[in-house]
Amino acid sequence: MKRFILLLALVSTVPVAAQDAPSSGSDLWDRFQSPPNDARPMVRWWWFGPAVDTAELDREIVAMKAGGFGGFEVQPTYPLSLDDPAVGIRTLPYLSDPFLSALRHVGDTAHATGMRMDVTIGSGWPFGGPHVPVSQAAAEVHMVKLPVPAGADRVPLPSMQQGERALAIFIDGQRLTMIGADTISVKASPIERQAMLFGAGRTGQQVKRAAVGAEGFVIDHVSIAAVTNHLKTVGDRLLSAFAGTAPPYAMFSDSLEVYGSSWTHDLPEQFRRRRGYDLLDHLPALFADTPDSAAVRFDWSRTLSELVDERYLRPITDWAHARGTRFRAQVYGIPPPTLSSNALVDLPEGEGADWRSFTSTRWATSAAHLYGRPVVSSETWTWLHSPAWAATPLDMKVEADRHFLQGVNQIVGHGWPYSPPGAGEPGWAFYAAAALSDHNPWYPAMPAVTQYLQRVSAMLREGTPDGDVAIYLPIEDAFADMRPAHASVNEEKRSRLRGDVVAQVLDAGHGFDFVDAQAVVAGKLNARVLVLPGLTRMDPAALRAIATWVDRGGLLVATGAAPAAAGGLRDGRAGSLAVRPLVRSIFRMKNASIVPPQALGETLRRITSPTMVLAQPDAAVGFVRRKIPGGDLYFVVNTSARSIRTTARFAGDTGNGEWWDPLTGTRQAAGGGDIALSLAPYQSRLLVMSPKLPAARAAQTLRPLMDLSTGWEMTLRAPPPGTSWTSVAALRHYSGAIRYSRRFVLPKRGSSGRVILDFGEGTPLPDIGGDRPRAAIAAPVREAAIIRINDREAGTVWAAPWQIDIGPFLRSGQNQIDVTVMNGATNALSARTLPDRRLLTMRYGERFVDQDRDKLAPAPSGLLSRITLNVASSDAP
What we know:
8-stranded parallel β-barrel, globular, 45 strands
């Protein structure tokens, strides 16, 4: 309960990022067309080495802004080159004066250009470095089995490594007194036995992907001494670069990947104070199944989780606030924060694109909704279409939409690789991620991509989240199941919270948030329906709050069975005595039920009205609902490579809905009732229902005007539309741009002027699945095209439906079309041998391994389908 009170107190004191006030009607339309700058996507900016130069840093910031990015997160990381004065590559060791000078320069440039700047409180991940003594390195508890020969009355102990100490030894289930440093006395036995020695030591984990000068142990994230040392040595040193000027917008912590972290030096004392008994008497329960093991593991996990909150998250937030900045953090991993731990940071962040199952993205957005964080970000494109440089604009949209569907409204792209001029083309790239810099041949299309992301992000900050269904995370069960080798709540959720729970809620037509015990006790349960997904244990205080909520009309559905126990060894026994009568009382109420796991979706359809329901159910269609003043705003996405045409009904229907297209910034009337839903592959739209909307045009049917598939002139002797550049030997490994040009005569047209240039449809491809997301479609434009009509830029085509309205740029009679098509860098890279990293590895060790380089191959490029000119039916000549 102390932890719940702590969280409640912090919620009222932590500042949040500013955002413009929500609006409706014509103001909302204005914000859609010209969204605020703070909704622009950001990028993670990798500084390799770091070997950076101020002139190139300035050039890249300008390129970022020109591409429509609103800011960057500086992440110094591993070197990609030895120092080479001949090409201007010089490594600036991490935290050195030259490095800090570069950081200050970037801060000044960001401020001058209106770009947001965040800085990671370390290099690589997790936090650590050369300043971490072994006594503050990530700690673990481990078990060693010692043979005890028949007749032996003493057991020699193995030698302890530096930073390691013996905690307890057990034989025949009994803890023995440790009276010496080298041996332990035991009662002799005529049979051979086995003793179990438990020790506290150091995991030895080193900082991953560290910059030069940042190598060293990962810190103990549940040691206040280790965290304080890191903030003083690294955090304050970083911020000293900004003395006399504004600090970075936020300081950042990546996901907690402190593998094997399961202990800290004073854990026994903290455990005894919080749990009321001696953990050392029960150490075997952490490793083996005993009658009390689940209860002991619950208490151990809960204690670690409390220490993460109190010694890592809260101190860093306090440290950031005292220095005039914010704390942005990915609050999940090892050691184990809970969902409500996100309440301790200013800007929660997630990662993971699988919108139909448990992800750390939904974990972060749920906490943001519960605890009033209006802006929530996600690390996006981490493994997009690997290898590096393979990702396309459409790939970016496909993954970003799946983050938006989970409630994200700030994209942090992964990412932008700094590359010195001497590195050649396409330059440096991170070992595993999309390379989204201006070295990408299709980068001139980036402003159109970021404008789409900016529009959606801005609209998903409007109003308040819907939250009609809540899914209670079985964190209590996760605590009881965790072992020292892998103490992670969110990883436990991936296996315990079956994907069909999330899928059934979505397929029943509902949006949802996750909740946990802390949020429920804090009074954050505001949903109409709460789902308890097969819980065994439940916090009694949370259950009492749920009982009150049900009594006031809340709808409760438990799948499989209701919880029957509490958690820990001591308070858990007393808690279990409270849980059982509470459960019996709750499920006697008419609005609470226990159903088979597979019947969850059917039950939701029966007990409550859906938020959105399709005439033809389709798992590829996702939505987010935001409640805006006087109405509703929906973000609707086709997540598949096929077209979808159906109708749908929406809660909050006012009869005068409008479809807003975030790709083009246009709108059309949608009406009400059974609203027509037409989505091209991977297309998304916003449905806005507000009584104050300005009138929108009615939907129009397109009719063909002329076929423009032939008669084009191409630069570089490229093949005509319908044929890939790779069919020409000289262009097979070409990465860059080719211009297609032709003239045509336009007949006299009607007054509305809607003339659509259509580049054709894509062909669905098999979905490769796995953890390398990509668009599973052979697009007709590879990878993007900038359209000019009569020497005026008309726009960019990069996503379905691969059409553009060129009506405003046309004139009666003769017209000129120029289509500049850009492909990706992989075609050129596929002709090159892999870089020789031998000397780099000899100098710095193997800090990374390039991923999926064996998959490099020339990709189809150019205009690959028929090209037609169409007019709206009312515009036909």
